Amino acid sequence: VQLQASGGGLVQARGSLILSCVASGNLVSLEIMAWYRQAPGKQRELVTDIRRDGTTNYLESVKGRFTISRNSPEDTVYLLMNNLKPEDTAVYYCAADPPKSFVVDPSYGLDYWGKGTLVTVSS
After folding, report:
1. Residue pLDDT tens, the chain, 123 long
2. In this structure, how many other beta carbons lie within 10 angstroms of the beta carbon of residue 60?
3. Nearest-angstrom CA–CA distance, 37 and 42
4. CB-based contacts of 114: which residues, under 8 Å, 6+ apart?
5. In the prediction, which pLDDT does 25 show?
6. In a 10 Å sphere around its CB, with 0-12 CB exposed, 13-18 middle and 19+ buried, how is residue 76 labelled?
7. What gap in Å lies between CA 120 and CA 90, rounded to an integer?
């Protein structure tokens, strides 16, 4: 499975961006799709994830500002980011997991990763 993320760029604080991630390859109706980010000098963190049944989870600092959605037949995931803050500046990565026989905690990482897309928020 290959993941291709796009949509990053430079935006002013309080602005908005939409990130997209398209999965291709041997798709088996991916169970989890997620966005992670890594800011300079910091560890990678899980921003948000969405399961095939629509269940979502968000990092506390982005709740109310970011919205994840997915188009399951095409295994495309979107991240709408509103009211961006300078601290949201990071490389954002799309990731995904196939269905498994056990419950996966995305905070530990997923199987498939795309190349990151840089989001820079200026103050």
Report:
1. 999 999 999 999 999 999 999 998 877 678 999 999 999 999 999 999 999 889 999 999 999 999 999 987 778 999 999 999 999 999 999 999 998 888 889 988 899 999 999 999 999
2. 6
3. 9
4. 2, 3, 4, 5, 21, 93, 94, 95
5. 86
6. middle
7. 7
DSSP code of residue 52? T
Per-residue exposure over 17-52, b if at least 16 CB sit within 10 Å of its own CB, e if not: bebebbbeeeeeebebbbbbbeeeeeeeebbbbbbe
| Tokens matching residue 88 | 């949201």
Distance CA 89, CA 47 (A): 12
